[in-house]
Structure formats: C-alpha cells, structure tokens
Amino acid sequence: MLKSSRKKKLRNVHNTYVIEQSSMETLRSKYVLLDTNFLIDASMFRQEVGNLIDQLNSLGCSLLTTRSVILEALGGTNNENDLDDKLAYLEIVFGRPFNELERLPIERRLPDKAELLSFSRQCNKFATTDFELFLMLEKYKSSGILLISRNHKDFTSKICNRTGFITLLGNKEIRTYGIYQAK
Predict the structure, then answer these.
(1) Is the distance from CB of 131 to CB of 106 less than 8 angstroms?
(2) Phi, psi at residue 41, to the nearest 5°?
(3) Do residues 148 and 178 lie in contact, with contact meaning Cβ atoms separated by under 8 Å?
C-alpha cells in the first residue's frame, strides 16, 4: 500500500508533452503537418499543448495542416459558440488567422495509381484525411516536411519513416505521437 504522501504526489503529476531528445534535430526548421488526432487531444490539454507549441516554435517549426484535418477537428460542433471557440483555438495553435491555416496547396487532382497502391497496400482501408496527409508528405518530401500523428497504423514503415516521437504523459494515460516523413 502506498503511503499517503506518495499517493498525493502521484495525483499531482501534471499532463505534459515530451519531445524525445533525439527528435529535436529532426524537427528543427521543418514544416510540420498536424493530424486531427493531435488537434483533438490538444483541445483537451490546452495549457500543455501551449508549452509544446512554444517548443516547436523555438525549434523553428512551421505548423501546417490540411482542409480535411480542419474539417475533422471542427466535427461535432453543435452551436455557433462552440464553433467560434474551436476556430479561435485553431488560430492559437497555428499562430495565424483561420483563413490562412492552409499554407500549402491542397491537391486538386485525383491521385495516380502508384500513389493509391503505395498507401492502400499498408492497410485494408484508409481515411481520405490520412491519404491527403500522405500526399502532402510525398509532394513536399524534398523540403523535409514532417507529420505528427497518433495514427501509427496509417503511416506504417511501408510508406513512411518514423523519425521520432512526442509523448503526452498524462495523469490517466500516455499517448504517443509519431513524427513521420515520406520514404
């Protein structure tokens, strides 16, 4: 049985995001795409993600996302006040107005067969949003663009290199985000 003071210390552990030390150089001065799962988690841990965003900014990262991710992150909004709150929060996370969140062009063409096969061979099905993120990684791979996602099964070693980790050490659980780069 734990002593009373030790129980109290364990209860007072705060949620915190931790960038794996070896991932710091990987992230330095890179464009970083944020996946929906990251944004949803961030909305639950606003103070903690603020510290992580400060760290990413200090590394010179430019945070980006896609139209599909924005739409998924806004999902489940029931009223205008909730929508305004979510929009304001996205502006805080990305550090720019909502209408400027998409800095990279979104693909307007249909993917070719090679792109479809490359992505679909790793799993039985895939989401449009994850495929869009994959296409962005592919298109801008020469710039060193990275993705932060908890969807480890959608960005397997068949199509991406996992170059690092960010961990959310929580009071009740631990969440691990991969840092991915197109092969």
Answers:
(1) no
(2) -60, -40
(3) yes
Mean pLDDT of 6-16: 55
pLDDT tens, position by position, 16-50: 999 999 999 999 999 999 999 999 999 888 888 98
pLDDT at 103 over 60: no
> Can you tell me the distance from the alpha carbon of 32 to that of 97, in angstroms, rounded to the nearest whole number?
18
| H/E stretch holding 73 | helix 67-73
> What does pTM read for this prediction?
0.80
* Cα-Cα-Cα-Cα dihedral sign, residues 92, 181, 141, 59: positive
Q: 10 near 18, Cβ under 8 Å?
A: no
Average pLDDT, the chain: 82
For residue 181, the SS3 value is strand
Spatial distance between the Cα atoms of 36 and 128, rounded to a whole number of angstroms: 12
From the CB of residue 26, how many other CB atoms can be counted at a distance below 10 Å?
Answer: 16
